[in-house]
Structure formats: structure tokens, C-alpha cells
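Follow-up to my post from last week.
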Amino acid sequence: MDLIFEIGSEGRKLSLLPKCDVPEVKVPESQSRKTALHLPHVSENELSRHYSKLAKRSHGVNDGFYPLGSCTMKYNPKVNEIAASFKGFTGVHPLQNERTVQGSMEVIKKTEDTLCEIAGMDAFTLQPAAGAHGEFTGLLLIKAYHVDRGDTKRTKIIVPDSAHGTNPASAAMCGFDVVSIPSQDDGCVDLEALKGAVGDDTAGLMLTNPNTVGLFDKNILQITKIVHEAGGLCYYDGANLNAVMGIARPGDMGFDAVHINLHKTFSTPHGGGGPGAGPVGCKEFLKQFLPGHHVAGDENEGFRYEIETKSIGAVKMFHGNFLVIVRALTYMLMLGKEGVPEASSNAVLNANYMRTKLDDLYEMAYDTTCMHEFVMSLEPLKHKTGVSALDVAKGLLDYGIHPPTMYFPLIVEEALMIEPTETEPKEVLDEAIVALRALYKEATDNPEALHSAPHNTVIGRPDEVGAARNTVLRYQWTD
Amino acid sequence: MGSFVPNTDREQEEMLKEAGYKSFDDMFSCIPDEVRLKRPLNLPSGLSEMEAIREMEEISEKNVTFKHIFRGAGAYNHYIPAIVKSVTAKEEFVTTYTPYQAEISQGVLQSIFEYQTMMCELTGMDVANASHYDGATAAAESIPMCKDRKHKVAYVSSTVHPGTIQVMETYCFGSNTKLVQVPSKDGVTDMDKLAKMLKDDPEAACLVMQQPNFYGIYEDATKLGEIVHEAGAKFVMSVNPIALSVMKTPAECGADVAVGDGQPLGMPIAYGGPYLGFMAAPKSMMRKLPGRIVGETTDDKGNRAYVLTLQAREQHIRREKASSNICSNQALCALTASVYMAAMGADGMKEAATQSTSKAHYLMDALKKAGLKPMFSGEFFNEFITDCPCGSDKLLDALAEKGILGGLPLTENVVLWCTTEMNTKEEMDQVASIVAALISGKEA
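User reply:
Got it. Predicted complex:
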């Protein structure tokens, strides 16, 4: 379809601004723009239809099943959007004085308190804008802790080889060296490898639990103990928190700092890749290093901002992705103490239901009770038929299902990682099971058809190599 | 309680049974007993939708919203066209994630490609990423783009927004980068001092400056760029996207990286977020840009298609050697900015920019007549600083009583004012008369 630059015509426009009611002042000649500015020239009707067309060429949670492992694509309740549209939230300036933003401060305080209880932490900052941003913030807390103690030789962060790519990347941004340790055959942390890796240069460990293969690491208390005894701290990557809310808490597992993805676990929409929010929680002894402003006080005495004594500063301007936080709080208020564990219980149930309906056909990377997601290895299928994880994923597109996460974690060959979430009804899971079983059969009967799938989408497989080699990253005008 | 779990108790029991579990407890037996939470969460009981919406509405009403806003400093109250809200509420855009599966994500991918194009047009650059968290983090992440083995020290002008400098400092604490502030003179970067500082430092990697700067004043960016390049360092400009429609582009000023906050492009001030960080650069810096980038290609039938590209820079491939850890960004805000720019068009953007600066000049004149003095004489865009002999708080309280959010108090008697096309002559006259009354000691 046409780009927005290829529709409309010179002179078409919307009627948006009134005439200026004061004498016109131009930017001084020495500062003024010489290069022509090309922007679309369309009527409102054309503009509106253009984006309706683009919307039809997109697939959201609202359009169908979206079992993208590690991303928790649960339903985004519409009530969240109503709350985030209240003028009292959208119309306040971030630099208004405290007296005039008591409502915003109450949102922040209530969210922090709720997250503290769910994660088993003592304090939170809502400033980080995304999960990776949260990791970066949490690791800065760990760095600040060691530096504050004068323990500057602690320069290493231990990361299992099954970790999200953001973990080592975040550690590197914090100036740490990354020590990768292998996982055991059961996908969990190899305790001996961990013992061998820790030392007086260990700043900390980053871990996801349940881990990226969807298993709860039963040795978690030993793991955090080994790191603590070596003088390191333990960081919990909360990407998989949706499995254990109200069931088990990172704080009780021995973690010192965590981040939580509000756009995964707390139902705020993913927006095509953001904005999300990645609040960071910590135990009392790390609180003094938290960035940004911390809300103190209560509804009766009034809320006030405080800055921590040894704050690392700020990881973002202002108070985080505030309207995302409003949405998450609305969701938490609705779920409450009963609904939070109910969500996790059903996320885990849906995953195990799907797993047990597929494990006779597909090879499960770890054939045991999973948490909120499970990983299949298509290596045996590929060996037998030549059909890869990518082919099966592309085949799912023709069933109107968003494919699972592919080729992650890296420790599983031909991995497909399926996370159904708790908001899918049984029928949707059954349909996906039927689709996956049909694809398995098709792989055996007609592998060629799968190599060229999808067949019913608006485009076929794109040439990604060509895109990276011959980069076209913007539209060019010819004049 | 509220719940978004569709399966009924009976269905859940059936599913448990089919999966081979006696109960939820049995299913969770894979979690060691010693880490199981053996009590209910200490949270209030859940609410129905009606109760939740009432509670959130009540909380929102505890905020004071102002009808007239003269405060900017990183959050600007521009007009948001109706079409922006309508398009960005489309659930296909709202509820999707990063477009990993190109075949069913062409809409999102094309919208990002269009966004990249528009940001390149505004900045004059060749490449823009799909977005960053905000302007401050974009500025902070421009530093590693400029560093190499020989160039390790970053410089920032002290006329950059203090919030941006704070975020840069925090990021530099992480990466063990020395960050040096360049002093200002008469409200702009002190070029003589900058030249000397850079001359004495062979390790200088970059200068980050802001245009117009925190005080609203135009810097001589071209000259600054020359000084920086002469020292063998890179030149990073943090820019206001509305102003870019009428101002010299970062490319025209010789910038190696352009960053900024896209909030003025259709996002409400919303207590500080979500906003939009943007980053753009010449092709030579393309592989150093952090974040998602969309490229054009063809599908297996030769149709035009869009994909995420240059992923070899990114964390899921490069892990600890990636250019950044960024993954989720501010995609829906980038879409917002695209729709805004498409709705405004080049002429509309220029009109918003011209009205914003025209009104700032009108307000400054009115405030001068009312008895306030500008602190600097430099030419300014839509923000400026005055003294406030009656005391900032007293003045701002008097304005607040009339439903006006005055400028940002920088000290007890200095205020940073801001106007946009939203401020009318009438309300500016009202501000001036309140100021005049306070200064003359009479009630307005």
C-alpha cells in the first residue's frame, strides 16, 4: 500500500489552528531553516483512512491469540484506558508543586505499595520506562551499593546462558563484565558452576525465576545464598512474574532488587513496542540509592516528595511513564488480593493444559510441570522433515495466530516458546492446539508448503538479508 | 473482586484434571515449600469496574488542572488535533507488541518507517530510530555512540535542561564515563571556555548541547559544532521538534547526532509521561544508533515490505556487546508523533512554531511593562527568564488563584516562562495585569 507521503496533494490540509492574535515574530534569519521540510499533505479523511488501512495490516491481542513467550500478551482491560484519559491525569504538568498534584502522588504511592507487597520488597521507584530500563536501574543500585562501601573490585555480573539478551546488555551498560554460566540439563542454574563463578569480584547475579525455559528453579534459596555469601547481590528479572503473583515472592527467594514489567504482568497495553513501564523494587538497605523522587506521607497528612540520601540520580526525566502507571493501578485495584493470585494460577494452568495436549507430538525441551510458559524444541521435527521452528511459526500465521517466541532461549535448539496467559478461554487454547497438531502433520506430509508459509497474509516472507544489506530506512523525495 | 480470567471454576477443574493435576496446589508443588507464600496478599479486596473507575476518578480529581499554562521546561502544552487521539486509540496499534512477525505487522512497521522519515525530515538526518524512552535518555545514550578507545570524556553544556544533565550523569555513573559541564555566559554556552576545555583534552568524545537551550535562548549551534569538530569530538544536539520546522536543522549545524523529546508532537503533558525520545544521525553513525530501526525490503513475490532491520546492533543478538540494552521503547508515542505531523503538515508545524515564539515575545513585552526584567538579552524561541522582585511563590500563587499555571520558579525570584499557540492574547494580558498589581502592591 502507499506510504502517507504518496497520497494527498500539495495544498491539502486540516483546519486546526486559529489565526495568531499577536504580532508575528519570526525566528532570526541566522537561525532559520534553509532545507525544505517535506511532510504529508493530506485531508483529515485521507489521514484517517490511511491509518485504518495500516491498522488492518496489524495484529494485536484484540485480533486474536498472541502466545508470544516471555512477553505476557494478556488482554488489556478497557477500563484502564478510561482511567488514563481522565483530565486530572492528562492535564497536569510534571513540574507543578506538590500541593496541586496530590492525586498523581497518590497513584504513585498506591502503586509502589502494591508492588512492594506482590514482590516482597520494601521500596519501589516507578521511573524506569521499560523492562530493560529497569534492569539498568536495578544494576545501578547494586553498583552504587558496592561503590558506597568502597568495595570497588566487584566488577562482575553473573548471568545464566538462558537469560534474556537484555541482561548481559544491561550489565555492560553499567560497566560490569559479564560472566555467563551454563544451565544444567534440566534448564536450571548449575550450582557447581555458580560456586565456581562467584568470588570477591562478584557484584551480583541476574536471574529470572521462573526461568526462561518456563521452570521454577527449585534451588533458588541455595542460589541466592551462594551469591550472598560471596558478597554479591541478587537481581530478579521480573519478566516472568505473571507466573507467581501471590504464590511466591522474589523478596522471599532472596532477591535484593527486582524490576516488574507493568506492560506484561499488569495488563497495560504493549503499544506496538511501548510505552511500557519497568518499576524497580529493592530491599530496605538499597532504598537509599533509588533514583528520582520518592513519595512519602499519606492521604491524611498529604503526600510529599523526598529524595534519597545516596540517590543514583535519575534514569528518566520526571516521574516515569505516568499514564502507564495509572493503567496498572486500575488493574491492580480491580484484581485485589483474590484476583492477583487467580491471574497467576490460571496463567500457569493454561500453559500446562496446552503443554500436555501437545507433548505426545512435539518434543518439550523440559517435559515437566511448567510455569506460565513452556518451550518446545522442533529439532527432532526438523531432522525428520526439514521443517524448522521458523516454518511452523510462519504456518501459524495462516491460522490467524501470532507465533510463539522463536529461537529463544538460546540453549534450546529450534525453540518455540509458548505463553498463553490467563485471559484466554479454553476454546482458544484448543484451537491453537488443533492448529499446532495440524502443522505437525503438514510438516510430515507436505513440508514444501510450510517452507513457503504464510500464504494468506498481506505479504509473504520478507527479504531480511536484503533489508540489512541495502538499507532503505526512510522515504526520499525526488525534488 | 474483578477478574479477567474467562474460564469458569468448573472449566478450570476440568483443565487441571486433563493436565494431570489434582488441584492448583498440586500444580504448584514444583515450587519449593519454603518459598511459597502461605498467606493471602496484604492488599484490599478487588473491585468491580464501576468501583475501580470511581476510585481512580476521585484520585484524579485531587490534582489541580490549570486552564491556562505558561510552564514548559521539558513539557509543552501544544494543541493536540482530534485525529491524533482517534488514530492512536485503535486497538490494533494499542494492543500489539514489537513487530517481530513482519507478515502480520506491516501496518505497525510501515507506521514506524513513516515516523523515521518524518524525524529525518525534521532533523535533516539520514537515519532515525523507532524511538527512545524520552529526550533525556536519548541524550544520555548518544554518549556511547560518540565514545571510542581514544575518546572517552563527554561534555555537556550547562545550558542543557538540568533534568537531562541529571539523567546523563546517572548513565555516565553506569558506564564509568567522565562527564564535564561547560559553563555558560549570558545564558548561552561559553564558547571561549569550551574551546579551551576541549583543546586541553585529547580524550574529548562529544559535546551535548540544547537548542533552544533550557533558558529558551538560541545558541550559535553552527559555531559550537565547529569548535567541537576542530577538537576531534562529536557534536550532539538536543532539539525541540516544533522549533525544528522553522529552525536550522541539526544537519545544517553539522551535528553528528540529533536527539530530543517528541512530547510536543501530540502528547499530553500527563504528569511527565509517556513521552517520546527521538534519535537521528547521518548514515555514517547508523550502526551505532541504539534501538529498533525499520527498513524497506521486498517479500518473496517482490511486493514492497517493511521489517525490523540492522538487528546485529541489538541486545538479543549481540548481548553484552550490543549498542544498548533498549528493547521496549515508546512505539505508540512515535505513532502519535507521526499522526500529529501528518495532520499539521509542514505549514501547520511552522504555524505552531511561529505562534509559539510570537506569543512568547508578546508575553515578555507585557511582563516587562508590568515590571519584570528579562534576565538575558539573547534572542529566544518560546521560553524566557525574568526576575520576580515580588517573589516567585507569591506571584505563582496569585496566578494560580485565577486558574493560571505561571512559569517555572527557578529560584525564589527567577521564573522561566513558556508560551505555545494555546495561549491567547487575552490570558497573557491577564497575567501581565496580575503581575503589575502585585509589583505595585495593589490587588489585581
